[in-house]
Write a structure and sequence with these properties.
The radius of gyration is 17 Å and the shape is elongated. Strand 2 and strand 3 (94-102) form a beta hairpin. The longest helix is centred in the first third of the chain and has 20 residues, at 9-28. The protein is of the alpha+beta class and 123 residues long. The protein has helices at 9-28, 34-45, 51-58, 62-72, 104-121; strands spanning 49-50, 86-91, 94-102. The chain has one domain: Winged helix-like DNA-binding domain superfamily/Winged helix DNA-binding domain (Arc Repressor Mutant, subunit A, Orthogonal Bundle). The mean pLDDT is 89. Helix 1 runs antiparallel to helix 5 (104-121), helix 2 (34-45) crosses helix 4 (62-72) and helix 3 (51-58) crosses helix 4 (62-72). A three-stranded antiparallel sheet has the order 1-3-2. InterPro entries: WH-like_DNA-bd_sf, WH_DNA-bd_sf. This is MarR family transcriptional regulator.
Length: 123
């Protein structure tokens, strides 16, 4: 038998915070997906992360991460304009590989999301 959920005030506050985070992402692109959000957040907490590592972190295949990264960068993907949230650069230690960082605009978005979460944490 499934456990019945009970409503708690702190659940409502937590839910409101998650909704605010999702609304911030929707301001950027109303069609943004969960995998795109996850990829962005992983790049934010792992500056210089490789595409290979992102495939592990987001738990999707390499081609999907490649498309998401292109969309989040200035390049865009599948005829869609890039969101300019990240920058893809050559790895300074090995020029055969590329690493990903938040762009200036991406850092502003990331900071805004952090502020939302910190406001919830301080309640």
């Amino acid at each position: 038998m499934a456990k019945q959920s009970t409503f708690r005030v702190e659940d409502a506050e937590w839910s409101k915070t998650i909704i605010k985070v999702l609304e911030e992402f929707r301001k950027i692109n109303p069609d943004i997906t969960a995998n795109q959000m996850l990829t962005f957040l992983h790049i934010g907490v792992n500056p210089g992360v490789s595409q290979k590592k992102l495939t592990e972190l987001v738990n999707v295949d390499d081609a999907t991460v490649s498309r998401i990264s292109a969309l989040l960068s200035e390049r865009g993907s599948r005829g869609r304009e890039g969101l300019k949230m990240i920058e893809i650069k050559l790895d300074e230690n090995d020029y055969r590989f590329r690493v990903q960082h938040l762009s200036r605009g991406g850092k502003l978005i990331f900071d805004s999301l952090r502020d939302i979460m910190m406001a919830f944490k301080s309640k």
